[in-house]
Design goal:
alpha+beta, 30% helix, binds zinc ion, three-stranded antiparallel β-sheet, 25% strand, 4 helices
Length: 131
């Protein structure tokens, strides 16, 4: 029995431009095309570790914003992250190994559609949570 699936989250074409470093391009069953660059995907990595990191950063971010202290934290210049390799996980996700060594992120198509950087998907999939 096939699982009923939201057509908006079902890809008909997935291209991962590992060698050029251009990112991931997915065309969905509803005709929409999403483009993600690797740093964006790295920032939206859905693994437990990165979820933790983001939760911590949100906490710190809120604290720093209200304190108004003069000890500004210098932005860290990280080299632009790229993908070393990408592997299909069943037919529901892709796993990306990044050049910074992080490889535990499994990007389900469900998640990928939800983080599509375009405005239309932002409105549709990320309603009130916008910061
Ligand atoms: Zn991660
Ligand atoms: Zn979109």
């Amino acid at each position: 029995m096939p699982i009923p699936i939201d057509v908006r989250k079902k890809p008909i074409s997935v291209k991962v431009h590992v060698s050029t470093g251009q990112g991931v391009e997915i065309t969905w069953s509803d005709g929409h095309t999403s483009r993600y660059d690797f740093p964006y995907l790295r920032d939206h990595c859905p693994c437990a570790l990165c979820n933790d990191e983001r939760a911590k950063q949100e906490k710190f971010g809120a604290a720093a914003g209200s304190s108004g202290s003069s000890s500004a934290v210098l932005p860290m210049f990280k080299p632009r992250v790229k993908a070393k390799s990408a592997t299909a996980v069943g037919n529901y996700a892709i796993q990306i190994e990044f050049t910074d060594g992080h490889a535990t992120g499994i990007f389900s198509f469900d998640h990928l559609r939800a983080i599509c950087p375009c405005d239309a998907c932002g409105r549709e999939f990320r309603p009130a949570s916008a910061s």
